[in-house]
Fold each of these.
Amino acid sequence: MQTRIVVSIVIIGFLIGFLSAASYGQEAARPRVIVSTDIGGSDPDDFQSMVHYLMYADRFDTEGLVSSPPGKGRKEHIFEVINEYEKDYPNMVSHSQKFPLPDMMRTLAKQGAEEPAPSVGYSSATEGSDWIIRCADSSDSRPLWILVWGSITDVAQAVHDAPRIKAKIRVYYIGSWNTSQDPNARNYLYNNHADLWLIESNSTFRGMYVGGAQSDDLGNLSFVEQHVRHHGALGDYFYGKKADIKMGDTPSVLYLLNGNSDQPTEPHWGGMFRATEHGDQYWTDRTDEQYREEKYDGARTVNVWRENYLRDWQTRMDWAKSPADGTGILGSVAGCIKQISE
Ligand SMILES: [Ca+2]
């Protein structure tokens, strides 16, 4: 009997130690993130992706929200979404204390370039490109993820001005139309900085809204109608911008939410990519038939997870709608922000 009790204590002790280590690991794994977005430009889906991102803001150490080309989007459009986030913040933070304060998020909005790069691929430093360098130069040892939802103009400028930051940054770039709006910045990076850690998604991201489980409430229209609209200020704001799921930039966020972000060739909610002869720091869409959806290479490596990432987001939409029993008051403080304010 005594032996059984001792064994039980040892097992319980082991489990407590394991769970503590697991939660520590989760904490240590919070990615540092800068989003570079053309929000407010010609396409409403960046507004959708920003709503989704803010609803997961407790999972990241956000260090910057940069307004980038193409189009007429400016950082005021980032503020617009943060204003909606502020309305839902009391509910959201009651579910997770790690949601950052709205005012903190406002300080992270930076204006990047307003025009695509000239033929050389870069021009002058901007508030956004300087901010990328400043955050990359922080003493925080974690890599700095830059999720590029518009043209890659500000990343190219930052890498040109301070090539040393390549050792610290990891770029997930939604290419395609964004590339066609500023091919010079993209080609400058591709041709002159082959050692840049870069995922270039030219078609994989289409899996966000093409194919996958779309029956019943999982459809692009039905999901928004049932699980997004009338779910907090952010839900109504999302619906007002566009009544169905496009969110073509969101796979960059999903990539960090589920899967081993160190290994682009492994499965993630945000896609699975292939290495190429361009170098060992560059990955792009898989071209295998089995991962193609319609004409989009690699799109199935995203849409295969559709039910998982939509159900997960659904839970968060419910958070926006109503508070948890307890309430939290603390926002998170990101690495370079903490360093700057000290
Ligand atoms: Ca975009």
Amino acid sequence: MTAVAAPPRTDVVALARELAPAFAERATAHDRDATFPHENLAELVAGGYTAMTVPAEYGGPAVSLADLCAAQQILAGACASTAFAVNMHVHGLAMIARVGGESAGRACRAVLDGAVIAGGFSEPGVGGNWWHPTTRADEVDGGFVLNGRKGFFTGYPGATHLFLSAAVTDDRGLPEPVAFLIPKPQRGVRVTAEWDAAGMRATGSHSLALEDLYVDSRWAVGERGALPMLFMLGVHWAWCSFASCFVGIARAALDHVVETQRRRVISVIGKPNAQLPGIQFRIAEMAAKVAAAEAHLDAAIHAEHEDVDPLTHYVDMSVMKTSVTKLAHEVVTLGMQVQGGSGLASGDPLQRMYRDVVAGLLVPPATDVVLEWSGKQALGVPIFAEPRWEG
Ligand SMILES: Cc1cc2nc3c(=O)[nH]c(=O)nc-3n(C[C@H](O)[C@H](O)[C@H](O)COP(=O)(O)OP(=O)(O)OC[C@H]3O[C@@H](n4cnc5c(N)ncnc54)[C@H](O)[C@@H]3O)c2cc1C
């Protein structure tokens, strides 16, 4: 385990505020060296943060989605990589818990004991189309043998458990996606590339090869073929948590730029940059976009999540994530214009935020797929009709 977990806390927003200053201080070095923030994760486990989505029936604090998102925004403002890595864990567990049954009980007990989950659904061969895994799960006595590749496995260096997908072959010879939650294995998983990217550099989003990885059948999460439904019904946990990371970066960028421009005096102007109309207009635009992003996220957090049509629910949450991350990217881009050349210097955290926030446009769900589904839904065109571009 990463660390011994403390009794779960319900005040995760206060906990995030306590931990954020130290995370912010360590962020520069982890970003520079592309090192995984193990000490941050250990503090999150020790403080009970990682247990926040354990439901009450399993002895957890059952923190609300609103508090999860508020806490994640605070962490993201300090160290977006840490927030993004622990996001995989908190929302992943919420989705597993929602499925219920033995796998949920096992996962929750492990997390209360300090376990940390990383999730791997995208693959080099399918990109973000992760309802169609090319990783194969061949049935053997008592379980499955998995072979395939996983890209972008965020949080892998700090994980004790892996939540991943593979396809079994059904009676008709067709692939059925299955999710598994497995203790991080000693054998059968090889890191093929360590994460070294332009943004989210401290997330340890390694690429993996699964090579004859034995998986016990009791580690399956939900029924065979149930993976798409598992995602659709629990998607508010995922996309609200994802969106929070990028809203958190945008809010931190705005605060940082405001603070800098109030202090900065250029001799030609002779007074603080804050007096310049161009600075004022862009700050106003940034603030409006942050408010729009926060409002859209808030509406998604407080929308109906239980009595829903699964597909409509999935599309609504996906549209929110798409629009919020686009706004967040625009906010930080405007911030760079306000800050000027010094914003690009390695000593200014804004350049890290600029590189981190772009990940929001790339992480799931794939923007074009969301726009297609949402547009088709609005126009009354069946989403899954084939061929795809004709009615
Ligand atoms: C920092 C970071 C961390 C990540 N962490 C994780 C993780 O922990 N676990 C995980 O599973 N994944 C993770 N991902 C991967 C992410 O989930 C996406 O799957 C991945 O970025 C998309 O794959 P790709 O970039 O190869 O793009 P592709 O999926 O190949 O997409 C490339 C382009 O094609 C478009 N496109 C793709 N498919 C379609 C389609 N069907 N219809 C129309 N247009 C399409 C996309 O919109 C995009 O513009 C992470 C990504 C990033 C950037």
